[in-house]
């Protein structure tokens, strides 16, 4: 399956980003001496000033329209690809047990297609390089197995309608679902690219949804 012209949102009130060396701090807010490159929408100040007595400091982002903050533009520009193979087996064990078993092997990729995420716009990380957002979809799951069974006991021959209604025409069923892990987007704390959105800044050099979570059995 292939989808075109799917909705996504972009912050169009951002300047073009510049590659900036971003300092790395540990969990105690102590500078480690390391830097990594990030496409930042703001600039860095490396010389002391009134606003930055202890450089380096991050300047505020200079938006094309400084009167406004984030401007979310919803576009029908995203795409998706889904390839899947499904196998289904069904049959009966004796006269009283029915069994169905399904297996799906699939892969889903998009760039990304979520227009809203928990009530906030699902902006891509860099509106000027949307091709870098292409990766595993949040709905991707490589393996999935569903097994269900229905047991229908044999009828009892009881005296009276009440006993027949109580002991007959019952069915017992169960469903077992097991699947491989779903994608995890490796984001980082803070706002490394300075676009005023702290929910989507990824680790350097890591693509969207690069990691896979644990398997998920359920009944």
Structure explained in plain terms:
The protein has 219 residues and is mainly β. It has one domain. Helices cover 3% and strands 43% of the residues. It has one helix and 14 strands; from the N terminus they run E-E-E-E-E-E-E-E-E-E-E-H-E-E-E. Strands 1, 6, 7, 10, 11 and 12 form a six-stranded antiparallel sheet that branches. It is elongated and about 95 Å long.
Present the secondary structure layout.
Layout: E1 2-11, E2 18-25, E3 31-40, E4 44-45, E5 57-58, E6 72-93, E7 97-110, E8 116-117, E9 120-121, E10 135-136, E11 143-151, H1 161-167, E12 172-179, E13 183-184, E14 211-212
Antiparallel strand pairs: 1-6, 2-3, 4-5, 6-7, 7-10, 7-11, 8-9, 11-12, 13-14
Uncertain regions spanning at least 5 consecutive residues = none
Mean pLDDT figure: 84
**Fraction of helical residues:** under 10%
Roughly what fraction of the amino acids lie in strands? 35-45%
Oligomer: single chain
Which features would summarize this protein structure in a list?
single chain, elongated, 1 helix, 219 residues, two-stranded antiparallel ribbon, 6-stranded antiparallel β-sheet, mainly beta
Quick take:
This protein has one helix spanning 161-167, and strands at 2-11, 18-25, 31-40, 44-45, 57-58, 72-93, 97-110, 116-117, 120-121, 135-136, 143-151, 172-179, 183-184, 211-212.
């Amino acid at each position: 399956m292939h989808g075109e012209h799917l909705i996504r949102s972009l912050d169009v009130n951002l300047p073009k980003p510049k590659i900036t060396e971003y300092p790395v701090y540990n969990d105690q807010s102590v500078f480690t001496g390391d830097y990594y490159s990030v496409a930042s929408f703001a600039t860095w100040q490396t010389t002391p000033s009134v606003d930055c007595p202890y450089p380096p400091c991050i300047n505020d982002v200079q938006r094309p329209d400084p009167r406004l903050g984030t401007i979310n533009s919803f576009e029908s520009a995203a795409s998706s690809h889904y390839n899947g193979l499904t196998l289904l087996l069904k049959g009966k064990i004796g006269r009283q047990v029915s069994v169905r078993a399904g297996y799906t092997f699939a892969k889903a990729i998009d760039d990304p297609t979520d227009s809203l995420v928990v009530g906030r716009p699902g902006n891509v990380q860099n509106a000027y390089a949307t091709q870098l957002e292409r990766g595993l979809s949040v709905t991707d799951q490589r393996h999935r197995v569903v097994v269900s069974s229905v047991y229908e006991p044999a009828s009892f021959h009881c005296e009276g309608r009440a006993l027949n209604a109580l002991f007959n025409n019952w069915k017992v069923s169960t469903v077992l679902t097991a699947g491989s892990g779903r994608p995890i987007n490796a984001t980082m704390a803070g706002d490394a690219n300075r676009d005023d959105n702290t929910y989507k800044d990824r680790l350097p050099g890591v693509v969207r949804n690069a990691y896979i979570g644990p398997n998920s059995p359920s009944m």
